[in-house]
Design brief:
This protein is mainly β. It folds into 2 domains: 109 residues, Immunoglobulin-like; 172 residues, Porin (Beta Barrel), CATH 2.40.160.20. The chain has 2 helices and 21 strands. The strands form 4 sheets. It has an 8-stranded antiparallel β-barrel with strand order 12-13-14-15-16-17-18-21. Strands 3, 4, 5, 7, 8 and 9 form a 6-stranded antiparallel beta sheet that branches.
Amino acid sequence: MKKLTHGIWLFNFYLLIFIISVAFAQSTYKELKDIKIDRQGIQLKILLVMEGKVEISKAQLVKENRLGLNVRGLEKISVASPLLVEDSQLKKIRIRVIDQENVLVEFEFKNKVPNFTASPVPEGHEIVFSAEAKESLSEVEPEIRPAIIIPPPPSSEIVSFGPRRIEMGFVSGINLVKDTVFQELYGHQMVFFRGEYAVVLPIPLETVDLWLGVCYSQKEGRSSYLEDRIKFKLWSFSYALRYLYTFSRISLYAGPGLDMVIYREEYPPEFLIPTTRGRDLGFHLQGGVHVYLLPSLALTLNLKYNFLKTEINQIEVDLGGLETGLGLRFGFGR
């Protein structure tokens, strides 16, 4: 039993390290970090300082004196908007969120949009404006799309990873029951399936959630004397308060909780008592990690240690022990 328990702990430890390593490899924010403006004689150079790989579409004339640059895939913006500029040509720069995937960086000039070129550079994306304005919208550089009017976008949020206001999911794994008599009849472990629901509490920093779980497991075994087939079923209804610590695409959690456990043991027809059933209260400690594959989809690894002693047929049985599971979570709202 000790070897099996140590093996499972070791397996989950390496699995946790692997998940965190993969998440860290993909955890760089796609961020607009800064906008640098440099006037060099008749040229005005504007550098959009980016981190991470994003898609930048060709520039679009929003109006005769406004130029828009669409950036797709940003997760974070660290630049204030609007950004007022002291320049003979450029008036201000606005950053407008179109939807969860697209952000429009808009350059507003005092007169017509000047000639310009736009190109990627190691730090991000550079736009160079010259002193002369285009005579008409049709003379825009080949990089520019035909003139369009972009309506005001609806308000939206930048895509972010982390716990949603409400999350639902399912987890499956192994329950290691401590009791030695149980192990003799049914073996060392039971497979469980659990549905989960969690809501982040509306407190500052949103670092605590209320977790609810409904779990079912069963195992077939053989009686001690006649080797007849017997079956044990276990339902548990659990709740917990968990502290959350989120960074990038990873959310760690830990906390205590209570369990209402209902059990049933079924015997062969020739037994005088066909079934034994009961219920009891216990408590647990749990912890784990969510790795967000998408803003509303996470892979979760959960470790839960149960404390529960009860009586079955006037015999004290320890149904506590380690649960370890892997599952998926789906989030809604912010």
